[in-house]
């Protein structure tokens, strides 16, 4: 995939895609490239003669997903198509982006000759890694720790997934700076602020660049009292615990340097 990440050094998403395309050019004859057919910047990257290309996606692709259904806090299900074969998979991970991740893994396994049944079983055994949209219940609160890292695409995916999960429940969202975005950092932070305003009932912002998120959220109509900046990790956790009730959702997301997982640590420590 090519997303707006590392723009400080790469300059543009197109350059990110080109850099990833360099990996394909190094493949030997007889090698295999697993390609996201739904990413126009990636699918057009060339590969050498004699390299097999396996495409995955939600449309016309050798490895594809259909009939995607949310199962709430249990994850989601979809029908996995591998060539002419299909099998229903239940995935203990959230969001459309993780469907793509599952398809990429399935495509790589298929390239190695693994059967669809074994691939589906492996996907169902998967559990998210630490700080990557890990969902846990803490004293009735549904805590989502997605603090490992952040760029505009991953924050957008997290907010979209939260919107799908929370239903009518209250959502507390704590966002930190997105780093290494280069000259577009202000506008990209504003865009996230606009989206956060559509999902969060209470928005906590940590870091200097989140001033632009606050601006975007305010411009999108979020009340000033619901946009909170200037608190420490511990103070954010305390405010969440003061206001959250059973069944409410808490999402933590930010670049690695913002250490947003400290909010989760404070919440757990306070409750215990």
Structure summary:
With 272 residues, this protein is of the alpha/beta class. It has helices at 7-10, 13-25, 40-43, 96-111, 116-125, 152-166, 185-199, 210-219, 233-243, 261-271, and strands at residues 32-36, 52-57, 63-70, 76-82, 85-91, 134-138, 141-145, 171-176, 202-206, 227-229, 249-253. Strands 6-7-11-8-9-10 form a six-stranded mixed beta sheet, sandwiched between helices. A five-stranded mixed beta sheet has the order 1-2-3-4-5.
What does this structure look like?
The termini are far apart. This protein is α/β, with parallel strands linked by helices. It folds into 2 domains: 7-125, Mur-like, catalytic domain (UDP-N-acetylmuramoyl-L-alanine:D-glutamate ligase, 3-Layer(aba) Sandwich), CATH 3.40.1190.10; 134-271, Mur ligase, C-terminal domain (Protein-Tyrosine Phosphatase, Chain A), CATH 3.90.190. The protein has helices at 7-10, 13-25, 40-43, 96-111, 116-125, 152-166, 185-199, 210-219, 233-243, 261-271, and strands spanning 32-36, 52-57, 63-70, 76-82, 85-91, 134-138, 141-145, 171-176, 202-206, 227-229, 249-253. The protein is globular and about 60 Å long. Helix content is 40%, strand content 23%.
What keyword list fits this structure?
272 residues; alpha/beta; Protein-Tyrosine Phosphatase, Chain A; 5-stranded mixed beta sheet; 11 strands; 40% helix; 23% strand
Total tally of structural domains: 2
Strand order of the largest sheet: 6-7-11-8-9-10
The profile of the biggest β sheet is:
6 strands, mixed
CA-based gyration radius: 20 Å
What overall geometry do the principal axes of the alpha carbons give?
globular
Q: What do we call the CATH homologous superfamily of the largest domain?
A: Mur ligase, C-terminal domain
**Structural class, from helix and strand content?**
alpha/beta
Second-tier CATH architecture of the largest domain: Alpha-Beta Complex
CATH class of the largest domain: Alpha Beta
Helix proportion:
40-55%
Oligomer: single chain
CATH topology of the largest domain: Protein-Tyrosine Phosphatase, Chain A
């Amino acid at each position: 995939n090519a997303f707006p990440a590392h723009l400080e050094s790469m300059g543009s998403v197109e350059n990110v895609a080109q850099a990833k395309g360099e990996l394909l050019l190094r493949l030997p004859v007889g090698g295999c490239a697993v390609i996201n057919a739904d990413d126009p910047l990636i699918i057009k990257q060339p590969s050498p003669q004699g390299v097999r290309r396996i495409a995955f996606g939600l449309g016309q692709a050798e490895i594809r997903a259909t009939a995607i259904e949310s199962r709430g806090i249990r994850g989601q299900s979809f029908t996995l198509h591998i060539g002419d074969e299909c099998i229903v998979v239940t995935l203990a991970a959230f969001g459309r982006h993780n469907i793509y991740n599952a398809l990429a893994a399935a495509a790589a396994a298929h390239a190695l000759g693994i059967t669809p049944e074994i691939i589906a079983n492996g996907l169902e055994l998967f559990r998210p890694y630490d700080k990557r949209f890990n969902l846990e219940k803490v004293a009735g609160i549904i805590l989502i720790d997605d603090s490992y890292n952040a760029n505009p695409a991953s924050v957008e995916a997290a907010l979209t997934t939260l919107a799908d999960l929370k239903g009518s429940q209250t959502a507390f969202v704590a966002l930190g700076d997105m780093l290494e975005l280069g000259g577009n950092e202000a506008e990209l932070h504003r865009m996230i602020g606009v989206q956060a305003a559509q999902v969060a009932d209470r928005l906590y912002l940590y870091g200097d660049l989140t001033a632009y998120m606050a601006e975007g959220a305010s411009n999108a109509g979020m009340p000033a009292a619901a946009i909170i900046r200037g608190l420490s990790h511990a103070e954010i956790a305390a405010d969440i615990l003061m206001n959250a009730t059973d069944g409410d959702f808490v999402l933590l997301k930010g670049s690695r340097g913002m250490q947003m997982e400290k909010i989760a640590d404070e919440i757990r420590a306070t409750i215990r």
